[in-house]
Write a structure and sequence with these properties.
alpha+beta, two-stranded antiparallel sheet, about 40% helix
Length: about 120
């Protein structure tokens, strides 16, 4: 069984892939006198948004790192490879990934603990 780290990443990738595969042409096009009039700009926009979201997520992945110090002994856990700097120690999933996933908050598999 996967844990919350893998679950949020898998959830976000699955939702983006679903949106990418959706038949936007069929949904957005209307029939006029038997001729299909299609506005492909809407389809292109959806694909662009998904591509931008994927690019924004690049580098934001879980890595093992120092999350806290107890006295002089460091405590390790999962931090974001990009946001989990020694200064911030932002835990995984970071706020950037949580914000990207929030777009799918109405999906039944979305978990409240993922909210930014």
């Amino acid at each position: 069984m996967t844990g919350p780290v893998d679950d949020l990443t898998a959830f976000l990738n699955a939702r983006d892939s679903e949106a990418e595969r959706a038949d936007w042409h069929h949904i957005e096009c209307q029939f006029n006198g038997g001729t299909r009039a299609c506005d492909c700009k809407k389809h292109d926009w959806v694909l662009d948004v998904i591509a931008y979201k994927r690019r924004a997520a690049e580098g934001h992945e879980p890595v093992r790192g120092v999350v806290d110090y107890i006295g002089t002994k460091p405590e390790y856990g999962m931090v974001c490879a990009t946001c989990g700097t020694e200064e911030s120690r932002e835990m995984w999933p970071c706020r950037h990934i949580r914000i990207l996933a929030k777009a799918y908050a109405s999906h039944p598999d979305y978990r409240e603990e993922w909210r930014p």
